[in-house]
Design goal:
- The structure holds 2 protein chains of 2 kinds.
- Chain A is mostly helical.
- Chain A is built from 9 helices and no strands.
- In chain A, helix 1 runs parallel beside helix 3.
- Chain A is globular.
- The model of chain A has no long low-confidence stretch (mean pLDDT 88).
- Chain B has a domain of 53 residues.
- Chain B has 3 helices and no strands.
- In chain B, helix 1 crosses helix 2.
- The chains are: A mainly alpha, B mainly alpha.
- Chains A and B meet through helix 1, helix 3, helix 5, helix 7 and helix 9 of A and helix 1 and helix 3 of B.
Chain lengths: 192, 76
């Protein structure tokens, strides 16, 4: 396949984007740098196995995903991951609901707009990024594996060695926190 | 009747697995009555699409504008 610019240049150009993806998952600069470095090395070594079915960058992102998962598994084995606690209450979520289980007025979900339009807006992605960063680590980890990487909850349970029910509880919290944060950051600033 | 907090649990679950008939029925019933929860349901779907779109957005940001769209293209 003849691609212009050559693949080395494309790797260099993609590096910052690979890094932001890795950072969202690993939430640690050094770990993210390492994962990206390894992915780039692997992409260079395996260059011949790039079949051209997908775009080159998509292929490299695929390699990076494996590296990110490896890193998480390793951290898990080392006992470096904050335990996932699906039982205790989450204040950030309780603040959205009244005691009777209805929405608090200030937290009532609003229309975020047509997704196709919203996704074209750079500002939306900055808010999304910021909201991801504000999630607690253990919640963010499960959410990003599920929604950014597209793993099933079954696969996540295997990777992180947790119960599926626990996984669902955590994803529920992640989504409620994120939706509140997005609504705040996106709608409020859009009007400003 | 099911309250909003419980309804959001089912809306979230729906993004991860197929709801049982009973769950699906009670969620649908709640959604017909509750506008705030209908918005929340849309927000969860938007989050799902955003998550899926993020990678393709980053992977395709290198000036290949035709495929730049942050579309879903991934099954639930």
């Amino acid at each position: 396949m003849t691609s212009s610019p050559p693949r080395m240049e494309r790797l260099v150009a993609a590096r910052p984007r690979l890094l932001s993806f890795a950072r969202l998952h690993l939430r640690d600069n050094a770990l993210a740098e390492d994962a990206v470095q390894e992915a780039i090395m692997a992409a260079i070594e395996k260059d011949a196995s790039f079949a051209g079915r997908s775009g080159y960058e998509t292929w490299v992102f695929g390699i990076l995903k494996y590296k990110i998962l490896d890193t998480m598994r390793f951290q898990k084995q080392q006992g470096r991951l904050q335990p996932l606690d699906g039982e205790s209450d989450d204040d950030a979520i309780d603040r959205q609901f009244q005691e009777n289980g209805r929405w608090h007025e200030h937290a009532r979900p609003e229309n975020l707009g047509n997704p196709d339009k919203v996704f074209e807006n750079e500002h939306f992605w900055r808010v999304f990024d910021a909201c991801m960063i504000m999630l607690p680590d253990n919640i963010a980890r499960v959410f990003s594996l599920r929604e950014l990487m597209g793993l099933s909850t079954e696969e996540i349970c295997r990777a992180l060695d947790i119960k599926e029910n626990n996984c669902w509880v955590i994803l529920h919290r992640a989504r409620l926190r994120l939706r509140a944060c997005l609504q705040q950051g996106w709608l409020k600033e859009e009007m400003a | 009747m099911m309250m909003c907090k419980e309804a959001t649990r089912l809306m979230s679950l729906k993004q991860d697995r197929r709801l049982t008939f009973q769950e699906s029925l009670s969620l649908r019933f709640h959604l017909t009555m509750c506008g705030a929860c209908r918005q929340c349901d849309r927000q969860f779907s938007l989050l799902h699409r955003a998550g899926a779109g993020l990678e393709s957005r980053l992977a395709n940001a290198s000036g290949d504008d035709a495929s730049r769209q942050a579309g879903p293209g991934r099954s639930e």
